[in-house]
């Protein structure tokens, strides 16, 4: 197959352009049209079995962002960014959730839940045989697919981003009332535009050489 | 800030185009130029602390792909795809690894390892206070950032992909001799081109509505 390479998105250069932004320009906001694209991209993230065991808490309220920054180990990004996405997993995954998911498949694809019997068996079997702790790990891993997708989507839209694991999860959950929503925070992505004084923007990216990190078989 | 939206990559439509390909056209291969871009994109994946606790095993040998398909719960994608990426985590993370990483930072950024003392303290502190089990979970989660990035990068290059958790990890590790390389398989991504008979290509995508899955604060 011959691809039309000239029409391909220059993904490598988009990914080289991005970096973990340490200092956002707190006067700049992502415009609504661009944000809608990012939000839609995030929602399109694939997940195991399609179960999407997550919600995305998007914080733009400055007061709340400042509160969260205080629970982020002295990192300023949550306060200074334009949009802070708290990628959160569900606290539980049960037959009810599976049932609702099957109903949404049936509705979207104009079929019946009954016709999805084999799939239902697979999903409920997975939920039943997996411990709560393993389900939590599994849901958390799915959240990282969303993070990877969001970071790459932001890069191609030339929106700066910083993925963040360094925050007080309990503190975030409390400020955002996540437990009562059936959620637990997993990982953050701060988005906005780099401040011109952020010296990290000009740092050479450090990655394992392809020859070290890719094994061809 | 006014973005030049007309020049933006149409990320949403790229992500709508993609789907978890069930049936690959086994006569079609990803050309070398496109594959190099995907591989470089994968290597550019960001990770916590920049530690990149992974290797990417790219399998194109048909005999090995067929062997792996036999350990994939009757799923044909590993055999029929063009490139099978076995995203693997390191089996351990220790001071030696941190030291080598710091050396690569120093070399890349023309500085000394000594000048990175504070960062070294942070990294070794993280490694020391984290149990082996938690390190494994953490490394696995990082691998899912790579998966998310790879899926989105493939979509914008119009390469089909299927993320796969359903495989016999021990079996894969054995076939690929991962333990002796200090690796453990985490998750797969089969890449190539959809077969025209794959009915899943035309299925309507099922996602939570934005209003359900995004919470604005």
Assign an overall shape of chain A.
globular
Unreliable segments of 5+ consecutive residues of chain A: none
- What is the CATH superfamily classification of chain A? NADH Oxidase
Give the structural class of chain A. alpha+beta
Number of strands of chain A: 5
Name the helix and strand elements of chain A from N-terminus to C-terminus, one letter apiece: HHEHHEHHHEHEHE
* CATH C-level class of chain A: Alpha Beta
CATH topology of chain A, anyone? Answer: NADH Oxidase
**Oligomeric assembly:** homodimer
What does this protein look like?
Two copies of one chain form a homodimer. Chain A has 217 residues and is of the alpha+beta class. The first copy, chain A, has a single domain, classed as 3-Layer(aba) Sandwich (NADH Oxidase). Helix content of chain A is 43%, strand content 15%. The first copy, chain A, has nine helices and five strands. Chain A has helices spanning 11-17, 32-43, 62-69, 77-80, 95-108, 117-129, 132-156, 169-175, 210-213, and strands at residues 54-59, 83-90, 160-164, 183-192, 214-216. In chain A, strands 1-2-4-3 form a four-stranded antiparallel beta sheet, sandwiched between helices. In chain A, helix 2 runs antiparallel to helix 7 (132-156) and helix 5 packs antiparallel against helix 6 (117-129). The longest helix of chain A is centred in the middle third of the chain and has 25 residues, at 132-156. The first copy, chain A, starts with 10 loop residues before the first helix and ends with a strand. At the A-B interface, helix 1, helix 2, strand 1, helix 5 and helix 7 of A face helix 1, helix 2, strand 1, helix 5 and helix 7 of B.
């Amino acid at each position: 197959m011959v691809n039309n390479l000239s029409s391909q998105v220059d993904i490598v250069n988009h990914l080289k352009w991005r970096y973990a932004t340490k200092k956002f320009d707190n006067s700049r906001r992502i415009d609504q049209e661009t944000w809608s694209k990012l939000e839609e991209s995030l929602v399109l993230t694939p997940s195991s079995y399609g179960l999407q065991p997550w919600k995305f808490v998007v914080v733009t309220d400055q007061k709340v962002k400042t509160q969260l920054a205080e629970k982020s180990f002295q990192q300023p990004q949550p306060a200074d960014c334009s949009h802070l996405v708290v990628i959160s997993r569900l606290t539980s995954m049960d037959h009810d959730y599976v049932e609702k998911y099957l109903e949404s498949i049936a509705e979207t694809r104009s079929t019946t839940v009954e016709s999805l019997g084999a799939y239902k068996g697979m999903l409920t079997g997975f939920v039943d045989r997996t411990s709560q702790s393993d389900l939590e790990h599994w849901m958390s891993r799915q959240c990282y697919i969303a993070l990877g997708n969001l970071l790459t989507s932001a890069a191609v839209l030339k929106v700066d981003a910083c993925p963040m694991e360094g925050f007080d999860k309990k503190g975030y959950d409390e400020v955002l009332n996540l437990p009562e929503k059936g959620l637990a925070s997993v990982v953050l992505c701060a988005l906005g535009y780099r401040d011109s004084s952020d010296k990290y923007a000009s740092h050479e990216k450090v990655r394992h050489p392809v020859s070290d990190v890719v094994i061809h078989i």
